[in-house]
Description:
The structure is a single chain. It is built from nine helices and 13 strands. The protein is elongated and about 75 Å long. The C terminus is likely disordered. Strands 4-3-5-12-6-13 form a six-stranded mixed β-sheet. By secondary structure, it is α/β, with parallel strands linked by helices. Strand 8, helix 7 and strand 9 form a beta-alpha-beta unit. 40% of the residues lie in helices and 22% in strands.
Amino acid sequence: MTPNFDMDALRTIIVGTDLGSFARAAVQLGRSQSAVSMQVKKLEQQAGTPLFMRKGRGLVPTEAGEALIAYARRIVALNDEAAQQIGAGAPAASVRLGLPQDFFDDVMPATLARFARDHGDVHVDVRAGDNHSIADEVRAGRLDAAIAFFRPGSPAEGEILCTLPMRWLTHRDRAAQAVPAPLPLVLFNHPCLFRQAALAALDRHRLRWRAALTTPSLPAIWGALRSGPGLAVRTDHGCPDDIVALTGHPALPDLPEIELRLLRAPDPTRAATRLAETLRAETLGRLAPGGISRATR
Length: 297
């Protein structure tokens, strides 16, 4: 007999997976940890297979668990959309937006403001993170719409919005100074496409370098460039006024371009589709004129 999965239990495993902890899920959902555990156990009994396994102090989905979570997102979204359409007092819709820190000062606020004009009742959850994790979150259905950097020629995924040149960046007070040797690099944590491109270019030209600072924070990169000699690699979009590009510097190797792509979750809700459209429009409006749009490549 086909089981009828409990809607509240499906919501619980979605929240627990997104938060990385069923203890935190219990707090957010206003339930006891024992009640949450019972819901998970009930789903496992209905599924007839373990959905989660212990890893360290937490639980991670099994293969069956990952499959059920993906379906749970679609089931819950359709349930809430149906309830809203018939005026059944469904909870406010929620959408999840992801983007690199480079776009927090312009693309993010513009997207949120434009989306809110037509969807003021929809809750938007904004998440930033490492570039590679943003793409993973969209694939897993934990983000509805996102922009992320990709290496040109990488496997087809998402929609290419524009192509941007990578730049060697430093503080303006040191722009006219000789480049130190070995090169003091201010780097994002591994893995990072900009880090990989910089090290590959230096290796090809057999230039010596040292890691002056490693961080997962873009503001920390700007701070490090201000505080001492150092070079970073990024696009020049979103750079503070006192950070400048060393374009064509004879002591530095050329860098490749990087693609910015729009990613959409599979089976999006109507609100998620509209969020992706808004993100696309605002990103193109701010980036394509300064980059190389896909249409002109």
